[in-house]
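Need tokens for this chain, all 222 residues.
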Amino acid sequence: MDRNALFAHVSFTRDLSPPIIAALSSHAYEQTVERGSIITLEGEPASAMYLLYSGRIKVVRHSIEGREHILHLVEANDHFNTVPMFREPRCPATSEALVSSQLLAIPREHIRQVAQQYPELALAILGEFANRLHSLVGLIENLALHTVNGRLARLLLQQASLAEHNPQLAPLTQAEMAAHIGSVREMVGRALKAFDAQGLIRLDRGMIDIIDPQGLAAQAEL
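Here are the structure tokens for all 222 residues:
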């Protein structure tokens, strides 16, 4: 793992000075997790925050009935489990590896010590919290104001944009799409068939090709 490259790309560490990066790295440890591995469990003690060097992680919450909702898909050079570093030390969500992934874990007590020593780090993390809050407000708006078809169309366009920058990105399953947009797999399947019939996408053995991005954007109300 190239730690310097990772710190240079993560949003809240890329502009930090070398002494802060060195301090963060001094107690960090590397982990490799396989597909299906649980990294954090909702409600359990939070011992570290994580930077993702390679792979893909889903961050989810579960309802009482066991229904899953994806809060965030973590890609390379992103981070997760950051909030409990500075509040109640319990994981706010469950995180699971979607593929084999390499992580850099920074222990909770260590990152708090470095933030006290270097206010620049605290301000950078505060800015990141503001960005995440903005994203969550957008998620709430999407769930409250858009139909399942609209939410799915938006997700398909977002995933297509990500795939342009990362051709090796694994496509989401219908179950993962449903968890991401707050629906169920059966409704996602019906919506995909409707998009296919309208000529917006082409379904081919589980793969989805976007044929009419403008039409899909209209469905997404973008």
